[in-house]
């Protein structure tokens, strides 16, 4: 068919499902020829099917773009994680065989993590160091064998107790406010076994040396904002016997609750990776890979 006829007919349907126009050699006029219908030809494609070659080309280009982005992100994040990784202190962690140790647990939820600490050991470490704020907190919750303590944005922490109550506007405001936002500490008295007290959370059990635990307690004491040497209560907590306390530090994308938990564990001698520790599950994986910790 001449090119000009093909261009004129490109993309048009046949005028009849059972006939197709042909040109008579004798009359040189167009008349229908009996016979079965023939699939129409689409521009640049094969009869009766979409342009597969064009689709394949687009798919290959999309795959190439995705691969490039993955490689580029990995090329940035992997060196960044390596450069910001904290080595830990082998003199503190893990405890030497036969040495006295203290068992603590990381409580990892969907978006937040905290530390479950034995209250008696914490009170002893606070008394040895003379940390008035920590002494007051352990006395305030003296009826409980363990304390679950977390740190976070003062507004978001109070307003979003569960993942179901998540408010993205508050979350974005907490993460991206220039200069960060005020922080609070949440302290809960825990009497039940960890699995029963936190049924929906991931628990990572860590055995710290006594010296490492004292370092953790000292870092925790520095997290409390004080007035005349006493911790500043900031209202009732979210669940169980709990209280909020005013805290040191500013909450931001570069300093979230999981970074705080990782920072206390790093003070106890554990190696951590802040870039991985932004999310609770990243912190759990980090502790598994670098500190040999395992969730039960």
From TrEMBL:
Bilayer-spanning residue ranges: 62-83
Region feature (Disordered): 1-51
Alphabetic keyword roster: Membrane, Transmembrane, Transmembrane helix
Record's keyword annotation contains Membrane: yes
InterPro entries named in the record: CHP02117 (IPR011727)
Pfam short name (any one): DUF2459
Amino acid composition bias (Low complexity), ranges on this chain: 32-44
Biased composition (Basic residues): 22-31
Identification of the protein by name: DUF2459 domain-containing protein
Organism the protein comes from: Methylobacterium currus
């Amino acid at each position: 068919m001449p090119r000009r006829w093909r261009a004129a007919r490109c993309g048009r349907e046949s005028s009849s499902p059972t006939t197709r126009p042909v040109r008579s050699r004798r009359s040189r006029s167009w008349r229908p020829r009996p016979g079965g219908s023939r699939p129409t030809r689409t521009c640049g494609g094969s009869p009766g099917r979409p342009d597969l070659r064009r689709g394949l080309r687009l798919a290959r280009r999309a795959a190439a773009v995705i691969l490039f982005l993955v490689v580029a992100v990995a090329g940035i994040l992997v060196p960044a994680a390596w450069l910001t990784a904290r080595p830990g202190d082998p003199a503190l962690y893990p405890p030497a065989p036969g040495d006295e140790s203290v068992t603590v647990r990381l409580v990892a939820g969907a978006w937040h993590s905290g530390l479950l600490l034995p209250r008696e050991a914490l009170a002893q470490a606070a008394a040895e160091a003379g940390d008035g704020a920590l002494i007051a907190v352990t006395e305030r919750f003296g009826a409980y064998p363990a304390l679950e303590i977390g740190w976070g944005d003062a507004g978001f922490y109070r307003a979003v107790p569960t993942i179901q109550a998540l408010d993205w506007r508050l979350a974005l405001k907490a993460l991206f406010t220039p200069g960060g936002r005020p922080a609070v500490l949440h302290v809960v008295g825990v009497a039940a076994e960890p699995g029963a007290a936190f049924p929906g959370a991931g628990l990572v059990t860590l055995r710290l040396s006594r010296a490492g635990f004292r370092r953790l307690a000292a870092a925790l004491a520095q997290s409390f904002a004080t007035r005349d040497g006493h911790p500043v209560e900031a209202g009732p907590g979210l669940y169980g016997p709990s209280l909020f306390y005013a805290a040191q530090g500013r909450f931001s994308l570069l300093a979230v609750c999981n970074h705080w938990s990782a920072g206390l564990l790093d003070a106890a001698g554990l190696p951590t990776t802040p870039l991985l520790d932004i999310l609770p599950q990243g912190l759990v994986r980090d502790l598994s890979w670098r500190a040999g910790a395992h969730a039960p």
